[in-house]
Amino acid sequence: MPDHLLHDRYEFARHVAWEAGKLTLRHFGKDVQVDRKEDHTPVTVADRDVEKLLRQRIGDQFPRDGILGEEFGETKGSSGFRWILDPIDGTKSFISGVPLYGTMVGVEYDGEAVIGVVAFPALHVGMDAARGQGAWQIWSDGERSPARVSSATSLSEGLLATTEFSGYEHRSAANAFHELCQAAWFSRTWGDCYGYYLVATGRALAMIDPVMSIWDAAALKPVLEEAGGTFTDWQGVPTINGGEGVGTNRHVLDEVLAVTRRYPRP
Questions:
Q1: Sequence ranges of the domains in the chain
Q2: Which segments within the chain are labelled E, that is strand?
Q3: Each residue of 64-77: pLDDT tens digit?
Q4: Which architecture characterizes domain 3-146 according to CATH?
Q5: What is the average per-residue pLDDT within 9-29?
Q6: Please, what is the angle between helix 174-183 and helix 253-260, to 10°?
Q7: Residue 189 predicted with pLDDT over 80
Q8: What CATH architecture does domain 155-260 belong to?
């Protein structure tokens, strides 16, 4: 892959993620209608409008690239690049007026996640990375600083984050949650993409999800890896297609996997 092809998409992804993220603020904290999809997860007009904007901008700029989004499915491409979109990761937080939701833009090349941008518009902060270019903490005014994971070597030294307990119960892995919480110094459900942001910026040691879709994961893997950490499934495979997620500072990965590997997906 020529460097300029990656660079052009990285710069555009950074721009369009923030443009789309700011669109969410028109609805955040307001009384928006909440619908339930077939899987019973919530969706709002903000989710749909943001993905429409992202698709339009990406299609205009890179018409040969594929696009996969949570709300409107997949548009095939022919360039080898595929954009993977989660317009609002953390819709439950969004509809509850909690600002820990993010707009996520990931890019694959030949099936490998190479670019990730996550904007937290209500917090005016985010993170981004491209393969070989490091990971960055970013602010809505354009300020950037390197993102690096913690150097702690044991869960007992820091924070373990997750999204919600019900996901563990649904896959009969409640004991995994309890074991990990007992091993950590403390745990919080500052979940969805915000938990991975905490790992990438050295505030948390691990973030674990028992259930994830590809659009939940695509932007996270490049950021965590470029920040010095890891993103894998529960068996330790570095993938965005595992249907689950483990993000760590690398040093505690084996400790986490010693628990999660005993709970394979049904």
A1: 3-146, 155-260
A2: 35-36, 42-43, 66-69, 73-75, 81-89, 102-109, 112-120, 125-130, 135-139, 144-146, 159-162, 186-188, 206-209, 230-232, 245-248
A3: 999 999 999 999 99
A4: 2-Layer Sandwich (3.30)
A5: 97
A6: 150
A7: yes
A8: 3-Layer(aba) Sandwich (3.40)
